[in-house]
């Protein structure tokens, strides 16, 4: 169990995903197998598949703020305000200095820098046309900082660069800050603006890892033997985390409890995953939750739709769960929305949290012909009704340079 007498709970969720701008909408599309990927035209590359978020950018910002800020900041502001409202909270003189913002990101500043270089190229590279807001837009703490400016939060804020493990890392940081007593409320999770930079698409394309399909909604195919690679997506999901004692004191609704987590490093390769280290990370998280492998009911996999990544994660899962009497249910979210990079882990977790209440598990998407090397017991290819028997979820998120993060949440019980 977490090494503190305090328990940490989720009391608010705010998100935007390619297939939904609220948890109920997102969840409904997952349960009913509705993917949402489209084609966009990208400078220097042309037509590519992408997961695009279409939320109301002016719900919490004015046009000037949107123009001078960043896409990652805008996504963060939307998700943070939605989560705070969902938790039944308002920023006040009593809580503004005791609220922290901890946001995981894959990268930041690429979009603005690429666009600004392209812009001045149209003016013979005259730097007088360089954006006056370049520096605050590209500093690494920007998305979290934009949230604090927008909401009037005066507690700590920063971003955690953890590649595609970043969403879980943001939550873990929020948990740790609450356990240390540094904050009373943590806004934590992950965001990504990745579809607005051609560099990521070009990088994956040069590696032969950029997905393509005549039907965009069938392009993201984790575990399918006909997969062709990654669909890049944008998105965000931020949680309000509180100590249980504080949440109970104000009568907050509680979605779930954070029961364990772990992070580690492969230490072996820039890109290729290491199943031994992934397995170790899962095992460490299970121990931190005071659980045994057979206590895990559902695993949301990181699998991105690349052959090596999918197969290596399946190998790690067999190593962790293959020796027991019970293998957990296995699902995946990227077939629906693509790979939302820094937001992936938190969006994927959010889509599964309602299973504590309704007992339903969403399936994987686009697994028409299962790769034999990815065959696992209880891999969900259709929505499954457990009859309310879900008590714990393990959420995998792994990233480049071998960073691994695993988060475990459990059904909240007031005991």
Percentage of residues in helical conformation: 25-40%
SSE order in H/E notation? EHEEHHEHHHEHEHEEHEHEHEHHHEEEE
Number of domains: 2
Strand order of the largest sheet: 5-4-6-8-1-9-15-14-10-11
The main pleated sheet reads as: 10 strands, mixed
Q: Give the helix/strand class.
A: alpha/beta
Q: Counting H and I runs of at least 4 residues, what is the number of helices?
A: 14
The radius of gyration over CA amounts to: 20 Å
Strand residue content: 15-25%
> Ranges with pLDDT <50 over ≥5 residues?
none
Describe it:
The protein is 32% helix and 21% strand. It is globular. The chain folds into two domains: 242 residues, 3-Layer(aba) Sandwich (Peroxisomal Thiolase, Chain A, domain 1); 150 residues, Peroxisomal Thiolase, Chain A, domain 1. The two termini are 14 Å apart. It is an alpha/beta fold. The chain contains 14 helices and 15 strands. The mean pLDDT is 96. The longest helix is centred in the first third of the chain and has 16 residues. Helix 7 packs across helix 13 and helix 10 crosses helix 11. The protein has a ten-stranded mixed β-sheet, sandwiched between helices.
């Amino acid at each position: 169990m977490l090494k503190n007498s305090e328990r940490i709970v989720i009391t608010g969720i705010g998100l935007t995903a390619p297939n939904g701008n609220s948890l109920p909408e997102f969840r409904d599309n997952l349960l009913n197998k509705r993917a949402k990927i489209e084609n966009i035209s990208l400078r220097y590359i042309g037509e590519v598949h992408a997961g695009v978020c279409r939320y109301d950018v002016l719900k919490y910002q004015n046009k000037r703020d949107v123009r001078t800020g960043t896409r990652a900041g805008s996504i963060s502001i939307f998700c943070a305000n939605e989560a705070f409202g969902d938790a039944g909270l308002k920023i006040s003189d009593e809580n503004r200095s005791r609220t922290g913002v901890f946001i995981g990101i894959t990268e930041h500043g690429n979009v603005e820098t690429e666009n600004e270089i392209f812009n001045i190229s149209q003016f013979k590279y005259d730097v007088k046309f360089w954006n006056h807001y370049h520096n605050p837009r590209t500093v690494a703490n920007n998305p979290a900082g934009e949230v604090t400016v927008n909401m009037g939060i005066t507690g700590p804020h920063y971003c955690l660069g953890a590649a595609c493990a970043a969403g879980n890392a943001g939550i873990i940081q929020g948990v740790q800050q609450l356990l240390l007593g540094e904050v009373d409320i943590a806004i934590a999770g992950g965001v990504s603006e990745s579809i607005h930079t051609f560099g990521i698409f070009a990088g994956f394309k040069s590696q032969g890892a950029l997905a393509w399909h005549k039907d965009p909604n069938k392009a993201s195919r984790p575990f399918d033997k006909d997969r062709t690679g990654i669909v890049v997506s944008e998105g965000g999901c931020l949680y309000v985390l509180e100590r249980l004692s504080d949440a109970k004191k104000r009568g907050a609704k509680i979605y779930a409890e954070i029961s364990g987590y772990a992070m580690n490093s492969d230490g072996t390769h820039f890109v290729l995953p290491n199943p031994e280290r992934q397995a170790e990370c899962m095992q460490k998280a299970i121990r931190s939750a005071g659980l045994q492998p057979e206590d895990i009911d559902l695993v949301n996999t990181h699998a991105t739709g690349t052959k090596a990544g999918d197969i290596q994660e399946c190998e790690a899962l067999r190593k962790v769960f293959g020796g027991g009497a019970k293998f957990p249910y296995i699902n995946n979210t990227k077939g629906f929305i693509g790979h939302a990079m820094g937001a992936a882990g938190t969006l994927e977790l959010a889509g599964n949290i309602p299973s504590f209440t309704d007992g339903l598990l969403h399936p994987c998407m686009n697994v028409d012909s299962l790769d034999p090397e990815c065959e696992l017991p209880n891999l969900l290819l259709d929505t499954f009704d457990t009859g309310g028997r879900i008590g714990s979820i393990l959420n995998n998120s792994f990233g480049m340079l071998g960073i691994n993060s695993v988060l475990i949440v459990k059904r909240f019980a007031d005991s």
